[in-house]
Specification:
heterodimer; A: alpha/beta; D-Maltodextrin-Binding Protein, domain 2; 8-stranded mixed beta sheet; two-stranded parallel ribbon; 17 helices; disordered N terminus; B: mainly alpha; MetI-like fold; two-stranded antiparallel ribbon; 14 helices; globular
Chain lengths: 435, 308
């Protein structure tokens, strides 16, 4: 058994004990604060129409990495991420810290100001837009955005720097095939994935009337009952398209309409409990929506780590949605060289393992699964049987470590790249939820 | 009406025999007193309001990197056509909420004002107490209480008193009840102020003149409390129509209110022009409804200001 200095087992157990995550996306956000905080900024943004976009030529295909990555890194990297999306532990004085970041600081001397301020792509983007549009620094060196509309606005307008491919040796050596060269960012020109996941179906086996296996079951009251299915507003168009045999990446309005028709049919069937932006997991756990579109890591956490053996995560027979949250360096970042170091740090399998054991999502770095197995064996040797068992179940989960057959059933979502497309999309899908 | 005219005359007449400069200073004094609040309102109300209208007439989107002003009145017509259901639903919910709040708050505040005695302040504090906790948190607690198999309905279903399919969450009932709960204090306070100021001897006088309790209430207390009812209406109906938290937390498909649509457009679609247009539509609609109501009930009273 290899002894690795980066982890003290008792630390890890403490860490497990303080694990109170619900869902990276479902942390309650003060709904009122959200609007109040953003509306003025957005209005100002909307009015700043004459400011010339500070981000160079939009859509320029020059491909040269930004020269900001050359030079010495600064002292601090400002890192904005989603809640509960990085390993945590408590030190002797009871202060929460992030072990993987502490190791980074010890190794490089660069400190990372890590803040979990992102609770939705749209909202966070809305906050940054005024600065990005005016060419002002946002204050962040790394932000994490899911592939999708906001991601494309950032890259399309070049509001994020082109990364320097020579500054990511760990990424080159260890990134998994789906993390490398994704369709939404060819060649990882702008982004490196942080974590990914599947949008599939979660269900409570003790509360459904029959096996849930495919998309159509979500519209079948005989199987799932009425008013009992949770739907994820932002993921459902792509999820439905994939299950109807449409590749979202090559889809157009005609295909979107097909998905919308299915969703309308589902609404008419009376099975839908609610269309969720976030917070679906609360209703799922409480039994209000015992069948729900769900994110793989959430269900894995409840099933394996929180003691809900009846919870199941399902990739329907016809496929599921794959998404990745990506690290980007916004234009105006003051410490781009430091940011590049942090981003590559998390592609070291040893470090990536620390993150995966905590967040339970899809690691963009390879070599994690073996290390979790090792950790499980080490825990067993030390007599921590329960903890070892949880680690083993995590390492064996095909949703954390998918094989090629499973990956082949999943696809990335629609790549909307213009305002016209966005409007068309909204006109087709908004009437479903906004009733 | 007569008193109204009289007051107006008084005010316009002014002090007749003052010296010019003194009168000038006297006239300017209120202006200075208004300055801090006025500047505050100018910066944080009037300017954003102007920006809102300006934004509502823009076109463009996030991909082109900007929005541009082009008198796009289609934003307004499109939104009204597309979201008339939600507009009507919001107003209907709000009407029900306002009536429910008045029915709940009137007897309660009547009792406090007339029979509260030395406990008046303490009881009022109880009404205000919920304000000490964020209303989002309180609404989320409702989800916990009203869960399909939660601590209230779970046992009732186990006992067979309720059918298994029974639920309150994700229905219009939950949304309306949630808003009613959240806005009850806004109704209660102005009502209390109006009722508290009623001279109790008027009621005694009515009784001395052989009026029944009901008649005394009908002809003395009720008319005198109308300004409070009006203020309560404004403070409840207007914000309740724009509320989106209750529909978001307690509602389901089919309970979407106009506030939810505006929030979606602002925060999810980032379609600021359409969101702004809808906000302006809602604001104007509220102004019109409130002024119609004001015409009917009259506004010549300071209960609203006192209550605030």
């Amino acid at each position: 058994m290899t002894e690795r200095e980066d982890r003290d087992l008792t630390d890890r157990l403490l860490q497990d004990a303080m694990r109170t995550r619900l869902s990276r996306r479902s942390v309650l956000r003060g709904a009122g604060v959200g609007v109040a905080g953003i509306s003025l900024a957005s209005l100002l943004a909307a009015c700043g129409e004459d400011g010339d976009g500070g981000g160079g030529d939009p859509g320029g295909e020059t491909g040269a990495p930004a020269d900001v990555f050359a030079g010495e890194p600064g002292d601090t990297v400002n890192f904005a991420n989603w809640p509960l999306y990085l390993d945590q532990a408590k030190d002797k004085d009871g202060n929460v810290y992030h072990p993987s970041l502490k190791l980074f600081q010890d190794a490089t001397g660069i400190s990372v100001n890590y803040e979990d301020v992102i609770q939705s792509n749209e909202e966070f983007f809305g906050k940054l837009q005024p600065q990005l549009q005016a060419g002002d620094p946002t204050g962040w060196d790394i932000i994490v955005i899911t592939n999708g509309r906001q991601f494309n606005v950032l890259t399309g307008n070049e509001w994020v720097y082109r990364l320097d491919p020579s500054k990511r040796p760990n990424f080159d050596a260890n990134a998994t095939p789906f993390a490398k060269d994704p369709s939404y960012d060819p060649g990882n020109a702008f982004s490196m994935p942080w974590q990914g996941g599947f949008t599939g179906i979660g269900y409570d086996a003790s509360k459904v009337n029959g096996p849930v296996t495919k998309l159509d079951d979500l519209a079948n009251p005989a199987i799932v009952g009425t008013d009992s299915v949770g739907m994820l507003t932002s993921d459902m168009p792509d999820f439905v398209m994939i299950n109807l045999g449409i590749d979202p990446v090559n889809s157009g309005p005609a295909e979107w309409q097909e998905a919308a028709d299915w969703l309308l049919m589902q609404r008419e069937s009376g099975t839908v409990r609610q269309y969720y932006d976030q917070g679906y997991i609360d209703d799922f756990v409480a039994g209000n929506a015992p069948v729900s579109m769900a994110w793989s890591g959430d269900i894995l956490y409840y099933k394996v780590w929180a003691g809900y053996p009846d919870f199941e995560f399902l990739i329907p027979e016809d496929g599921a949605l794959l998404w990745q949250d990506n690290m980007l360096v916004p234009v105006g970042a003051e410490n781009a060289p430091g940011a590049a170091q942090v981003m590559d740090w998390y592609f070291d399998p040893k470090i990536a393992t620390m993150v995966t054991e905590w967040v339970l999502y899809l690691s963009p770095a390879g070599g994690v699964q073996e290390r979790i197995v090792e950790d499980a064996a080490a825990a067993l040797d030390d007599g921590y049987k329960g903890y070892a068992n949880k680690l083993t179940m995590t390492a064996e989960s095909e949703f954390a470590f998918p094989d090629d057959a499973l990956l082949a059933k999943t696809q990335f979502g629609t790549n909307i790249t213009s305002d016209e497309q966005a409007e068309e999309w909204d006109n087709i899908f908004l009437p479903i939820t906004q009733q | 009406m007569a008193t109204e005219a009289l007051t107006a005359q008084d005010a316009s007449a002014g002090p007749p025999t003052r010296g010019r400069s003194y009168a000038g200073r006297r006239r300017r004094a209120p202006l200075w007193l208004m300055m801090p609040g006025g500047v505050y309102l100018l910066i944080f109300l009037i300017v954003p309001m102007g920006l809102l209208v300006y934004t509502s007439l823009q076109s463009g989107g996030a991909f082109s990197g900007r929005f541009y002003f082009d008198w796009d009145f289609a934003n307004y017509t499109d939104q009204i056509v597309q979201y008339k259901t939600q507009l009507i639903r919001s107003v209907s919910y709000s009407v029900i909420v306002t009536i429910a709040c008045l029915l709940l708050a009137y007897p309660m505040t009547y009792w406090i004002a007339f029979y509260g005695g030395r406990w008046k302040s303490s009881i009022l504090l109880l009404i205000l107490l919920p304000f000490f906790v964020s209303f989002v948190i309180r609404t989320v607690q409702w989800r916990f209480l009203l869960g399909d198999d939660g601590i209230i309905f779970g046992p009732l279903k186990d006992l067979g008193l309720l059918p298994d399919s029974f639920r309150v969450l994700a229905t219009p009932v939950a949304v309306v009840a949630g808003i009613t709960y959240n806005f009850l204090p806004f109704t209660a306070l102005p009502l209390y102020v109006a009722l508290e100021r009623i001279d109790k001897s008027l009621v005694e006088a009515a009784k001395d003149l052989y009026s029944s309790r009901w008649k005394a209430f009908r002809h003395v207390v009720w008319p005198l409390s109308l300004p409070g009812v009006f203020a309560a209406f404004l403070l409840t109906f207007v914000p309740a129509t724009g509320d989106y938290v209750n529909a978001a937390i307690l509602g389901g498909p089919g309970t979407t209110m106009i506030g939810n649509i505006i929030q979606e457009k602002f925060l999810r679609e980032l379609n600021y022009p359409e969101a702004a247009a809808l906000s302006v539509i809602l604001m104007v609609a509220m102004l019109i409804l409130a002024s119609i109501y004001a015409r009917i009930l009259g506004t010549e009273d300071d209960t609203l200001t006192t209550a605030l």
